[in-house]
């Protein structure tokens, strides 16, 4: 991949933006352990034409439009093996398991594939099905436990009326930096021409300066 001209805007994400801790408050006898607090500071990044992430990062792509999500990922993610989604897993299971088991099995296989890549320190791009925090939470928890950098890109596209409230809540929360409560370390919202203006996403360390 060629290096963009020096005039291009570029955002670089370091590999030390990590966090997540457990509460030190005592638990009642017999009470289940409190889940680790994933809260970190979330940097809200402006739209850009060149995005550089640390190798081994988790990048989640969120959109109300599956078509726009897939078009974005296909255009910008060079390593197709790093891209994971329920759609890809469902396609692999079609005709191999009973229809009523597809969703359950696809969830199991997707979770295992994400964990395997994160554990190996491989870059992992997850194209999420929905805007719901509940879908992001287990992925972010795995990445936090494995101390992987965690990033999110939200494609702000047209949305159906039934998804409007969830869409607007995510948009507002992202702009305010509130996704840090979920463990997201950087978040970027792209809408309109900003989606196509982003020309390059790389998972490489910045070249050393002489």
Description:
This protein has 210 residues and is of the alpha/beta class. 32% of the residues lie in helices and 18% in strands. It has a six-stranded parallel β-sheet, with helices on both faces. Strands 1-3-9 form a three-stranded parallel β-sheet, with no helix packed on it. The protein has a domain at 36-84 and 121-203: 3-Layer(aba) Sandwich (Rossmann fold), CATH 3.40.50.300. The model is unreliable at 1-7 and 18-24 (pLDDT under 50). The protein starts with 10 loop residues before the first strand and ends in a 7-residue tail after the last strand. Residues 1-37 are annotated as: Disordered.
Summary?
The protein has 210 residues and is of the alpha/beta class. The protein contains six helices and nine strands; from the N terminus they run ββββαβααβαβαβαβ.
